[in-house]
Design a protein that fits this description.
It contains 6 helices and 16 strands. With about 350 residues, it is an alpha+beta fold.
Length: about 350
């Protein structure tokens, strides 16, 4: 894989990732852009202890532009976009409207007190464009191109984890208007958090409890148990296993684990990297076959990686889930879920696994 690093007109970093080692990525950004000031704040909830990011400057970000004005398409025919090149394989750039930004400390004064703690949102947010084809999806990629995306995620995980003050790197994709996607071009995002997010904190505490009680790693035991009684296993290879979790929160939810525990994407072996694209593309295509005639399935695909403080116990895995529970029906996070964080699932995990197996290749 070839990596090319360049700059956009306002100073943001842009990186191209190519399977073609001869690719030349030297097109300049000709737009008259001024730098954007990110006024991100991180506030700590005095009741729950959770961190909440406040990024009021994002209200002005691009919202569902027409296809011929998509900022993620290549720059062509005089129409300039975030990607100066006339074509690309995979491109990654700093978000122009970030929730977290490295320079936030220069613009947001922190303060602390017995109840109200506020700190600058000094992290980093990046956009990952999976393909130059506006009308494609990740599921349409070849295995070779999906491997380039995996390599890009890995590169960015290593680089962002090394930044001062970064606690966790989170790679994810939102797909579909139902999820709230404002740019339909196939893309994902990467957040470099300056704190450990609430979900990860809860998981780390649970892993510590399991270690204390049984003397073993929680994730090793979960994967082994799912393989021992594969009623919820959707598909598996030599190095990865995909299963519906025992207490799935979403109607159709699949967790994809490497069989050998790794803390993050940088810890994968070459064999594991080689097998991943085929298995992941198969899962995405199964999701698209779940609801005949209902259009592409909206989903969230989320890489959970271990923060520096928990590398010995937490395990890399990908969680893929949809909010669609049936054709024409969505799973809304209403009073119970949003008000109490207590999920109610309308589809049994075993039934979801059976259905996902049935729509296989």
């Amino acid at each position: 894989m070839k990596k090319t690093t360049t700059k956009l007109a306002d100073g943001r970093e842009l990186l191209y990732f190519d399977a073609d080692e001869t690719a030349v990525r030297d097109a300049p950004d000709l737009r008259p852009l001024e730098p954007v000031t990110a006024l991100s704040e991180i506030r700590r909830d005095p009741v729950t202890g959770d961190h909440v990011t406040v990024a009021a400057h994002r209200q002005g970000r691009t919202y569902r532009p027409p296809a011929d004005e998509c900022p993620l398409c290549p720059s062509r025919d005089g129409r300039l976009s975030e990607i100066p090149a006339a074509d690309y394989e995979v491109a990654v750039f700093e978000n122009r409207f970030p929730s977290l930004a490295r320079d936030a400390a220069a613009h947001v004064p922190g303060r602390s007190g017995p109840l109200f703690d506020l700190a600058p949102g000094a992290g980093r947010c990046e956009v990952v464009c999976f393909t130059a084809d506006h009308d494609a999806s990740f599921a349409d990629l070849s295995e070779e191109r999906a491997r380039v995306v995996l390599d890009a995620w890995t590169d960015r995980t290593a680089a962002l984890s090394a930044l001062p003050g970064i606690e966790q790197v989170y790679c994810f994709e939102n797909r579909g208007a139902e999820i709230g996607v404002t740019l339909p071009h196939p893309h994902g995002q990467i957040y470099a958090f300056p704190f450990v997010p609430p979900r990860t904190s809860r998981v780390a505490a649970r892993a510590a409890e399991h270690r204390e009680a049984f003397g073993r790693n929680l994730f090793d035991d979960v994967v082994a148990a799912e393989l021992a009684d594969p009623v919820r296993v959707v598909t598996a290879g030599r190095y990865w296993t995909a299963f519906v979790p025992f207490a799935a929160r979403w109607p159709y939810e699949v967790h994809l684990y490497p069989n050998r525990r790794a803390p993050d994407l940088t810890g994968l072996s070459e064999d594991e990297r080689a097998e991943f694209p085929g298995l992941y593309l198969d899962l995405l295509r199964r999701f698209d076959r779940l609801f005949d005639g209902a259009g592409p399935t909206p989903y969230i695909a989320a890489w959970h990686q271990a923060p520096a403080a928990h590398r010995e116990e937490l395990a890399l895995h990908l969680e893929l889930f949809t909010i669609r529970r049936a054709a024409g029906k969505l799973k809304y996070l209403a009073g119970v879920e949003s008000g109490m964080d207590a999920f109610v699932n309308d589809v049994s995990p075993e039934g979801a696994a059976e259905r996902l197996r049935a729509v296989g290749r």
